[in-house]
User: What shape does this take?
Amino acid sequence: MENSWYKEMAVYQIWPRSFKDGNGDGIGDLYGVLDKLDYIKSIGVDAIWFSPLYPSPNADYGYDIADYKNISPEYGDLELFKKVLDGAHERGMRVFMDLVVNHTSDEHPWFKESLKGKDNPYHDYYIWRKGKGDKKPPNNWLSTFEGGAWEYNEELDEYYLHVFAKKQPDLNMDNPKVREEVKSIMRFWLDMGVDGFREDVITFISKAEGLPDGFPLPVATGIEHYKKGPHIHEYLREFREVLNDYDCFVVGESPMTGSKDALEFTAGEDRELDMMISFDHMQADCIMTDTIATPFSLRKMKKAFTHWQEDLYGKAWNALYIENHDHPRIINRYGSLKYRVESAKMLATMCYLQCGTPFVYQGQEIGMTNITLSSIDQFRDVVTFNNERLFKKFGFSDKKYLEIANRTSRENARTPVQWDNSQYAGFSTVEPWFYVNPNYTEINVADAEKDPNSILNYYRKLLKFRKEHKVAIYGDYKEHYKNSRSLYVYERNLDSQRLLVVSSFTEKHVQFEAPEGFDLSKGELVLSNYRMCPVTKNSFVTRPYETRVYLFDEV
Ligand code: GLC
Ligand code: CA
Assistant: This one.
C-alpha cells in the first residue's frame, strides 16, 4: 500500500463557535484557537479541520456562506487566520478548510444578484424553475432541513431549489461559471498555504436532468436524484485538477453512500477524493438519521465498520470518526454515562485502531457528554425546529419531542468546550452564546491534564501508539466474534507484526477466549483502560467497557 502523509495523520476538528472565546464576547473565535494550538498539538494530532470560518448569517451556523474568500468578523479576520495557519504549520500541523459548495447563503452576493432578473448573469448560478401552474412547486422534493425544497419568488415568478434550509439555495453546478468559482475558491485558500479541504455534502452537487419527482419520504424526498448525480465524477475530477497542483488532501462528506460506492470516488491514483466521511457506522442506534432513534445494536455497528474496512483495504483509505458537529456525543450513544471514562477510552480504541485516518472532534478527547435542555426554545438549530414540526404532525407531545431533541439533536455536540471549572467552563469571560453543560465542574481539560488516567491522557497514548506502529496504520483487518452482542474483536497484520483489539460494549462480565492462533502470553499488552489485566489460560473475563490491545512481534 502506497504510504502517504494523509494516511499517517490524525485530525482534530474545530467547530469554531464553541471552541474558545478569545475576545470576551461569548463566541468562540480564532484568538481562542491561536491560544490553544499547543494544546491541540499535545493531543497527538497532525492537522486541524475547521468547520466554516467564513462570513455567514448563521442560519446553519456557518454552513450557509456569504463570502467564500474571507473570515467571519465573529471569528477574526484574514490576518488573524494567517497567524493561526502559520502557528499550526510551525507546530507541524496542517490546516483544512470546510468547503461548502452545494449551496451558498441566500445573503451571498451571487444570490442577491440572481434575484434581480432572469437576464442577470448570476441567475443561472442557482437552480431556478417555473412552478407547475396553480402555485405548485416544480417537483415534489422535500428539503432535509425545512419542509419543501422549493421557495417561491413572486417577482420572478420562479422557485429556487434548497435541499437544506431555505437560506441555503443550491448552486447550479451544471453552470461552468459556478465550477470556475469553486476552483477559484480552492486556489485562494491553497495559495495562502491551507493544506486541503473537507468538502461538505459534496456528492450532492450534481442533480438529475429534468429534476424528476422523487420517491415520497417524510424528509428529503428526491434525494435519489442528487445523492450521486449524473455529472458528479466529472465535476469532482475537474476540481481535482486544481488540487493536483498542490500537496494537499480532500475528504468528502457523503451521506447515503455505501462502501462499494465509495470506491468510485476514493480508489486509485486518479481518485477524486482521498477519503470519504461515511455515515453507516453512525446508524447503529437510529434509522437513517439520528432523530429516528432505536436501541443501540453493536452488531449493526460492527457490520458497518467491517464493510468499510474490508471493501476499502488495499484500494482506498477510510476516515475514522465517531463524533463531529452533526451528531450527539458518542458516550451517550454507544458508551455509558455510568462508565464514562472506561467507555470513552474503549470507543476511541475500537475506532482509531482500525485502518484509516482518525478524526477527533473538539471535546471528545475529554469525554464531553450530551446536554439536557428544559424547553425547546433553548435550542438553536434549524434541524431541531424542522423535526419539531414533523414529530408534532405525527402526534408527538411537546414533552415527548423535548426528550427526543435532548437525545438526538446535533446541538449536543455544540456546547462550549469545557476548559476548566471556573465560571462558563473557562470558555469565555461572559455568558456564552449557547449553554455550557453543567457537568463542566467534573469534565474539563484542566482536570484531565492533571490526571494521568484521564481520557485526554489516554487519547495521547493511543494516537502516539498508532503513529509509532505501522501495523496500526497499514495493517490489514480481520474481525472475530462477529455474532457477539457484547464484544468487538479484530486483528491487524503487517509483515511480522500483529495487533489484537478487544473491546467490550457492556457492563456485564463476558468470557473472552483468544481466537485461534493467538497466544496472549506472548503478546505485549500495549493499551488498556483498566490497571491490572490478568489473563488465565489464553482467556480473560471482561470488565465493564473494557478494552485491551495486544501487540505480537515476529509472528
Ligand atoms: C453537512 C454539514 C452540516 C450542514 C449540512 C448542510 O452535513 O456537516 O453541519 O448542516 O451539511 O451544509
Ligand atoms: Ca469571541
